[in-house]
Write a structure and sequence with these properties.
The complex is a heterodimer of chains A (405) and B (101).
Chain A lengths: L7 H13 L10 E4 L2 E4 L2 E5 L12 H14 L7 H4 L3 H14 L3 E5 L2 H12 L5 E5 L4 H9 L3 E5 L4 H10 L7 E6 L11 H11 L2 E5 L14 H5 L7 E5 L9 E5 L12 H4 L6 H16 L1 H21 L10 E6 L2 H14 L1 E2 L1 E3 L9 E6 L6 H17 L13
Parallel strand pairs in A: 3-12, 5-6, 5-7, 7-8, 8-9
Antiparallel strand pairs in A: 1-2, 2-3, 4-10, 9-10, 11-14, 13-14
Helix pairs in contact in A: 2-11, 4-11, 5-6, 7-8, 12-14, 13-14
Chain B lengths: L3 H5 L14 H13 L22 H15 L5 H6 L3 H14 L1
Classes of the chains: A alpha/beta (405), B mainly alpha (101).
Chain lengths: 405, 101
């Protein structure tokens, strides 16, 4: 047995797509030129799958902050916060996040993935219980696996099912920690957070909300689903990422719990990795300022989301349950998803293919994410390409015309 | 709170209100859930491999176990699921949990 024999079936599929030229997992952009445009060779590609919700990656103030920090403080920190010390910027960003969320404490991680790994593995110990929504992101499941708590999965967005599982655990000792997300990354649906908060209260559990896809997207101030649902006080920990609406890389956790800072010396994904470089911290700080100062970005984003969602629904595509910046068209199967993806790319539109087990219920998805930086004309162009490919592949009725607007 | 119907569903079994904890009953529930799936497998036995024979990926395995959890009114911790390879393993794991529940 050769070491990689176990991957043989996967490898065959990968190579089949590679040789057919429709492998979404190996695409390279020769040059990304704006939050919504890139070049492959000399072909212009409209980007509709980048999670760049507020389009801040090219914001002049954000880039200037990064450049200034890069020149003044160097390219990297070359070590971890615990072993090699923090920079002022790390602390400054933590204070800014705590202030934004109105929380006492904040902690910055090197990636969003590590924020979930670091928080979930640390807060739930050997005799505690983690209860995870069935559709939670891989980083949440991996964080649970890294820790020693007993892990229970409950039905997606089903507070009654969560309550039933907490009831089964009622006589089992240990704290119970519930984990849900603001916007789910695959279908763009939101959690019934007020109902989850009520279950949490009923059972005396703790609640962690991952707002990776909802920070800067939902809420009057952009604080996410907890703000919309009016249950921020019930959310013991908010976890999130810098790599979507904030256009950088890194992750964070905020909370009010007394003794929060002990997490810095028990969370292995925080301790045993290099801290984010000064330029990334400076860019994220400026992006957070922009997020707070420019609510118009959020309005623009949601208008774009509704335009894409309504347009695709009107064409006859089967979509996720609600219009949010993640808009996924449900495909009949993986092969059609690959074909759809590659035909869109050939026409000049970049989207994402999402397949099981990354997707719920074995769904094959053609996933889009819109940005505040998209113009209504760009969304219209994207819809035209969806319409053409959808008809070519026989997924939507040929005679159906898109309503104006 | 919505979705109460699913939670109140009684595990099917020999007599309402009485839980049959026998291995035979548990095996019957496991096979029944698989036969009710969209692509029911042709053959089922204790030796059936969940990944190789049933072709379930990591999430599909968790979905399958969730269905059984509801029927038997038990919770199978995820680390226990990770150790299960065959339907026989699953039945004996479920049996152990059922007795201690």
């Amino acid at each position: 047995m050769a070491l990689f024999d176990k991957f043989a079936p996967l490898r065959a599929a990968y190579e089949r797509h590679e040789s057919a030229g429709d492998n979404p997992f190996s695409i390279v952009f020769d040059r990304v030129v704006s939050p919504t445009e890139a070049l492959i060779g000399n072909r212009e590609i409209l980007l509709l799958g980048t999670n760049n919700y507020l389009g801040l990656t090219y914001d002049k103030a954000v880039v200037a902050s990064a450049v200034e920090a890069l020149q003044a403080l160097g390219s990297g920190t070359t070590g971890s916060r615990i072993a090699n010390g923090s920079y002022q910027g790390h602390r400054e960003l933590e204070r800014a996040l705590a202030d934004f969320y109105g929380r006492r404490h904040a902690m910055v991680f090197s990636t969003g993935y590590q924020a979930n790994l670091g928080i979930l593995s640390a807060i739930a110990g050997k005799h505690d219980h983690l209860l995870l929504d069935a559709d939670c992101h891989a980083s949440i499941y991996d964080g649970a696996k890294l820790g020693q708590a007993q892990v229970t999965r409950f039905r997606h967005n089903d507070p009654a099912d969560l309550a039933a599982r907490l009831r089964r655990l009622a006589d089992t000792p240990g704290d119970k920690v519930i984990v849900v997300e603001g916007i789910y990354s695959m279908l763009g649906d939101t959690a019934p957070l007020a109902a989850f908060a009520a279950v949490k209260r009923e059972f005396g559990a703790y609640l962690v909300v991952d707002e990776a896809h909802s920070l800067g997207v939902l809420g009057a101030s952009g604080r996410g689903l907890a703000e919309v649902a009016g249950v921020e006080a019930e959310c013991d920990f908010i976890v999130g990422t810098f790599s979507k609406s904030l256009g950088g890389v890194g992750g964070f956790c905020v909370g009010d719990m007394e003794g929060f800072d002990i997490l810095r010396v028990v969370s292995r994904p925080y301790m045993f990795t290099a801290s984010p470089p000064p330029s990334v911290i400076a860019a994220t700080l400026e992006a957070l300022r922009q997020l707070r100062a420019r609510p118009a970005l959020r309005q623009r984003l949601m208008e774009n989301a509704r335009q894409l969602y309504a347009g695709l629904a009107d064409l006859g595509f089967t979509l996720g349950p609600e219009p949010n910046p993640v808009v996924s068209a449900i495909m009949p199967g993986p092969e059609i998803a690959f074909a759809f993806w590659s035909r869109l790319l050939a026409a000049g539109l970049y989207t994402n293919v999402s397949l099981p087990p990354a997707t719920p219920r074995g769904l094959a998805l053609l996933r889009s994410s819109v940005s505040a930086a998209h113009t209504p004309e760009q969304i219209d162009r994207a819809l035209d390409m969806f319409a053409a490919v959808g008809r070519e592949l026989g997924l939507i009725a040929p005679e159906r015309a898109r309503a104006a607007g | 709170m919505g979705g109460g119907a699913r939670v109140n569903r009684k595990p099917f079994g020999p007599a309402a209100g009485y839980m049959d904890t026998s291995v035979e009953h548990i095996r019957e529930v496991v096979f029944d859930v698989l036969r009710a799936s969209p692509n029911p497998p042709a053959e089922l036995s204790d030796a059936t491999s969940i990944v190789a024979d049933l072709g379930l990926d990591s999430v599909a395995v968790m979905d399958f176990v969730m269905e059984i959890e509801d029927r038997l009114d038990i919770t199978v911790p995820l680390d226990k699921i990770a150790e299960i390879e065959t339907l026989g393993d699953l039945v004996s794991t479920l049996g152990g949990l059922k007795v201690s529940a």
